[in-house]
Amino acid sequence: MLNNIIQAGSKNVAIIVAHPDDETLWAGGTILDNPTWNCFILCLCRKSDHERAAKFSKALGKLSANGIMGDLDDGPFQTPLSHHEVEDTILELLPSMHFDILITHNLAGEYTRHLRHEEVSKAVVNLLRSGKILVNEFWTFAYEDGNKRYYPKAMEKGASCYTLPEAIWKEKYDIITKTYGFRSNSWEARTTPRIEAFIKFADLSDLKFNF
């Protein structure tokens, strides 16, 4: 069942992602459709990639959000990062340790599979569990790709899903294709979800993940 996830009123919202474009792919429509949100987007990788960093800055403008980039290793071999390094980087770059809503990657990632997405999610969960970051609501992206059988799509079971209005989806798609510059036949452009999905934890005692 599809549920409207739009939140009334102004909220301080943090969105923590691994890469520039993750914020748009997985939550861009929700950001665009909540103009009263005060959004801060933390992207943990690619600060030294000047081309991607410039595009991320432009995307922030399109999303009417503030943000910052980190420079965690994101090389082609995806060497695992220590959880301390990821957590310390998050704490160093966040402007505040309290938010109404915090949104990040799913512990299983959004597709099969991306180690950085999983590491970022685990780091955020650890920081919430330890009380180093305080939130009223915690959301994770909720997408799956059937073990690479199809492009990532919204999970229907256990997730709050929202079908984007056509105009909002078009704005989101334009950020992916025009701001970030992905071609129409690219994985990113073909993925760009029309239905955005989140697993929402209002009660943080529900964070019963084992890893």
Labels describing this entry:
disordered N terminus, Rossmann fold, alpha/beta, 211 residues, 7-stranded mixed beta sheet, single chain, globular, two-stranded antiparallel ribbon
Low-pLDDT regions: 1-7
Structurally, the number of domains stands at 1
Mean pLDDT metric:
93
Number of strands: 9
CATH topology: Rossmann fold
Given helix and strand content, the structural type is alpha/beta
Order of helices and strands: EHEHEHEHEEEEHHE
CATH homologous superfamily annotation: LmbE-like
Indicate the overall shape.
Answer: globular
CATH class: Alpha Beta
Rg from C-alpha positions?
16 Å
Could you give the order of strands across the largest sheet?
Answer: 3-2-1-4-5-9-8
Euclidean distance between termini CA atoms:
30 Å
- Largest sheet properties: 7 strands, mixed
**Beta fraction:** 15-25%
CATH architecture: 3-Layer(aba) Sandwich
* Overall helicity: 25-40%
